[in-house]
Design goal:
Layout: H1 3-14, E1 20-21, E2 43-47, H2 52-64, E3 69-72, E4 88-92, E5 99-103, E6 108-111, H3 117-125, E7 129-130, H4 143-149, H5 156-159, H6 162-165, E8 166-172, E9 178-182, H7 194-198, E10 207-214, E11 216-217, E12 223-229, H8 232-245, E13 250-255, H9 256-265, E14 276-282, H10 286-302, E15 307-311, H11 314-325, H12 327-332, E16 336-339, E17 342-343, H13 349-363, E18 366-368, E19 370-372, E20 377-378, E21 381-384, H14 389-408, H15 427-430, H16 433-446
Parallel strand pairs: 2-4, 3-4
Antiparallel strand pairs: 1-2, 5-6, 6-10, 7-11, 8-9, 8-10, 12-14, 12-15, 13-14, 13-19, 16-21, 17-20, 18-21, 19-20
Helix pairs in contact: 1-2, 8-10, 8-13, 13-14
Length: about 450
């Protein structure tokens, strides 16, 4: 019996019928996330645990036989973090999708990792509460993946990213041991912040089986503000001015290429001649929200906006938000795409976008830039004609040079999508030697046999 057969036998002993899959026709469905340009290997099986105890038994077997394990949720990642490696076992938690508890008095929810972000938000809304982090992929991304990549979203400018919402986690370690990290209280500093360390670790330290997440009261209806700019520089100045005086609940940016792609795909009257569009919201209640939106638009006009308007109409607001959320689907219709994710200080936003536009001309590739302007988090997306190998090569060069732009502007190579395999080689350019050593030591302490998502997220291991 091979090591793989031994692991499969152990999995079959604890999992339900049909929850161990080796069918070569089904395996491809689970071996890759949504990223393009990332490495993909061949797994020997996919298993679907339903409980923490089942995950523990699977990991005990994998650890005993030194079989590499790739944790997976909904597969909506954009960096190759849940891509299979050769000879790996995929542990998919999509069937662990139940809400375990909503504690209204203490303002938190305990949930399994496989639930979609939107489904969790709708569940807690039934209790009059709100889960704030809202990635653009919220309808099809899972909470486990959100935690593992420290996902952001449109509301994170005011309410923070996933890490800011995590109170505690239940985690199965590489050797199958189960631990609970974090706390139920709002405050607590007992020991190192191991729950915080798990957030953003991309499945390299443990498998998440429960997340305890902070909830907030449902916000009032938002007031939406839109500003149109004749150039990127003025849009960048507007973001800087806004964030020094206000904290909007959303501040999103689309460049001209993105606007044109969305308007072509789903016509809604967007100004396709604009070089940049800012979409903002204030969820301050009543007249305070209107006043905040008006001040935001006044700041935009001061730095060169050619058109501004405010809307309290929920349908129009949803249309404008939809325009931003449709950026990726619209660009997908135009060809193959390569999505980047970088973040820079807000004062460097205009410079970074200008440099990215220069890369588009330099390499003769289409680059559409959009993102979370209030956080300086940009998603330059390169679109390539399908089947054009020369364009694909130029695109990958441009993709890498966008990372150089982010670092040159004092930023980071990934704001919210993670490192995965796609950006692993660039970590050494952002982290110094001491930081790299610390990362390696942490990985060795949590996973000494290097079986959890090996080859992902770390500069070397």
């Amino acid at each position: 019996m091979t090591d793989e057969d031994a692991v499969l036998a152990a999995c079959a002993a604890v999992l339900a019928d049909g929850d161990v899959v080796t069918d070569p026709d089904r395996l491809p469905t689970y071996k890759q996330d949504r990223s393009t340009g990332s490495e993909v290997g061949e797994p020997f099986a996919v298993v679907f645990p339903r409980t923490t105890e089942q995950v523990s038994e699977v990991m005990k077997a994998a650890h005993k036989y030194r079989v590499p394990v790739v944790p997976r949720g909904a597969g909506s990642g954009l960096s190759g973090g849940s891509n299979a490696i050769d000879g790996s076992l995929i542990v998919c938690v999509e069937k662990m999708n139940s809400v375990l508890d909503v504690d209204v008095s203490n303002g938190y929810v305990e949930t399994q990792p496989g639930i979609f972000n939107t489904d969790l938000r709708e569940h807690v809304a039934g209790h009059g509460l709100w889960y704030a982090p809202d990635p653009a992929s919220k309808d099809f991304c899972s909470i486990g993946g959100n935690v593992n990549t420290n996902a952001g979203g449109l509301c994170c400018v005011k309410y923070g990213v996933t890490r800011d919402a995590v109170l505690g986690l239940e985690v199965v370690l590489a050797d199958g041991r189960i631990t609970r990290l974090g706390r139920k209280t709002v405050k607590g500093v007992a020991g190192y912040d191991l729950a915080g360390l798990m957030v953003g670790s991309e499945g390299t330290l443990g498998i998440l089986t429960m997340a305890r997440l902070k909830l907030r009261p449902l916000p009032p209806p938002a007031t939406t503000a839109v500003a149109v700019f004749p150039d990127i520089a003025s849009a960048g100045r507007a973001v800087e001015a806004i964030m020094t005086k206000l904290t909007p609940s959303m501040l999103e940016l689309m460049d001209r290429t993105t606007i044109q792609a969305v308007e072509t795909w789903r016509p809604m009257g967007l100004d396709t001649s604009a070089e940049a569009l800012l979409i903002a919201q204030s969820d301050a209640p009543g007249d305070a929200g209107i006043a905040e939106a008006d001040l935001l638009l006044e700041l935009c006009e001061r730095v060169g906006a050619v058109e501004v308007y405010r809307s309290e109409d929920p349908e129009q607001a949803e249309m404008l938000l939809g325009a931003r959320r449709m950026a990726i689907p619209a660009l997908e219709t135009m060809g193959d795409w390569l999505l980047d994710d970088v973040a820079v200080p807000r004062s460097q936003l205009a410079r970074a976008m200008t440099m990215i536009a220069e890369l588009s001309a330099k390499h003769d590739v289409m680059i559409a830039t959009f993102g979370h302007a209030g956080d300086g988090n940009l998603h330059p997306t390169i679109v390539i004609p399908r089947g054009d190998d020369a364009a694909a090569a130029r695109a990958m060069t441009a993709f890498h040079e966008i990372l150089d732009v982010a670092l040159a502007c004092g930023g980071t190579i990934t704001g919210e999508h993670g490192v995965g395999t796609l950006k692993r080689s660039f970590l050494a350019e952002e982290l110094d030697e001491v930081a790299i050593d610390l990362h390696s030591r942490i990985k060795a302490a949590w996973d000494p046999e290097n079986i959890l998502n090996p080859g992902k997220a770390l500069p070397r291991w």
